[in-house]
Amino acid sequence: MSDYDIIIIGAGHNALICAGYLAQANHRVLVLERRPIAGGAVVTEEIIPGYRFDLGGSAHILIHHTPIVQDLHLTRYGLEYIDLDPLFFAPFPDGSHITIWKDIDKTCDSIAAVSTEDAAAYRHFIETWTPIARATVETFLHPPTPLNVMRHLVFGSGLGSGNWERLSDILRGYGQLLRQSFRNPKVQAVIGWMAAQSGPPPTEPLSAPFALWHPMYHVSGMKRPRGGSGMLTQALAKMIGAHGGEVKTSMPVSRILVSNGQAVGVETVNGERFTAKTIISGAHIHTTLKLLDDAPLPEMQKNLLAKARVGNGFGMVVRYAMNELPNYVALPTENEPGPQHTALQFICPDLAYLDRAYGDYLGGKPSEQPALISMTFSAVDPTLAPPGRHTMFLWGQYYPYELASGESWDDIGQREADRMLATLAAYAPNVTDAVIGQLIETPLYLERELGLHRGNVMHLEMSIDQMFMMRPALTMSNYRGPIKGLYLTGASTHPGGGIMGAAGRNAAQVVLHDLSSRRWF
What we know:
With about 525 residues, the protein is α/β, with parallel strands linked by helices. The chain has three domains: about 5-45 and about 230-310 and about 460-520, FAD/NAD(P)-binding domain (3-Layer(bba) Sandwich), CATH 3.50.50.60; about 120-220, no CATH class; about 310-455, Guanine Nucleotide Dissociation Inhibitor, domain 2 (2-Layer Sandwich). Helix content is about 35%, strand content about 20%. It is built from 18 helices and 18 strands. The protein has helices at about 15-25, 70, 105-110, 115-140, 145-155, 165-170, 175-180, 185-195, 210, 215-220, 230-240, 285-290, 300-305, 340, 350-360, 410-425, 445-450, 500-520; strands at about 5-10, 30, 45-50, 50-55, 80-85, 90, 95-100, 220-225, 245-250, 255-260, 260-270, 275-280, 315-320, 345, 370-375, 390-400, 435-440, 485-490. Strands 1, 2, 9, 10, 11, 12 and 18 form a seven-stranded mixed β-sheet that branches. Strand 11 (about 260-270) and strand 12 (about 275-280) form a beta hairpin. It is globular. The relative contact order is 0.18.
């Protein structure tokens, strides 16, 4: 008899969500995590005494397009979300700014201060692309079978009814789409910089859908768990435990046990073995492939997985303990939180700026003028810092893992962190002298600490050839792994990275379907 019904490798948020659904369905679940805390890249830790830093994802937007929080009753286990409005604040070098609110009318009023023509164009953009954005959400909430993609994305969006003009727009890069949709470079930059968070640059063909998602921000808004991003995964771990499941930390898995072509268990680094009839890997797909090193995998599937592109890094982040909040020239305050501090604060004056940053990355060097997002969630959540003090998380793109100069990130991390802070200081001069302490998360740090290969927070590049039925590979996009009894979830699978949880929910649905079919048979 097996030790458990189901063993899950890794305790990232997708793995925990998958485990939550399975435990709720009365299966004996074991989750094994290599780090001393559950959560993967959605964790919050007190790195500097008194200051709570997220180590990975911070803004919770995507998960609120799913029923996960309600399905798993996570509020019962300590999860409390704080609504954040406005969503985005973009200051510009000339002292102007644009604020994106959940309310479309307020957003258009803000845009009108920069361009009355583009305020009307923005409303038209939202109205035009909302059906496709909603259809994309629905597609993400199901395994990416050809039938599901056709039903939800093609026909659900109206593209299947001969709307060829819209289809031609989707085939463009989002930079081209935004330049044809808006005249003012500032408006283009706000939408384009958010689109760039998935990874592809403005010039990449077929990347327009990353900008066409924009209407959904006005639907879901943005939220934060009180106490930090990791409160989501801590609530998930408690929920699993309450349903008889186990989450074991500091238990890195060294290999997946295979017998007669079927996954039957796992072995940890310290030699412990656990068996189950079903194994699910929530780890990076290349980590999963490594755990199968001594398993007789079909050659075609092994080759397909080996070719799944990680790319050369993506971004880096610096977490700051601060004496005060950024005081933006474009919207000054006297160290009192303003609406700009609730929002994600964008430093990206135009799309050409983003193109140049990506050009540096392609050349194997850190961006000389990085595009940034500053996050000051302590402005709405005082649990993150001591009274009168604040946290500031500074995310920058683009940062290659492998440097053309041959330098080591261990040597240049501080230099690039200083460059990021200096870039922000051009918009908020007070930040330079407000720093108390910091944590620098270079691409190398992200790989070492969070298991993100080559520092790619999306696991695999989010290009169109690695999305939907192609993620992580053509024969395994349905969450079923390369051998019987092995399933996959996490950012390496559909729909990719970000704090959404759809990959975990979808994988659980597939596993429950297969277990039900097996019992019936």
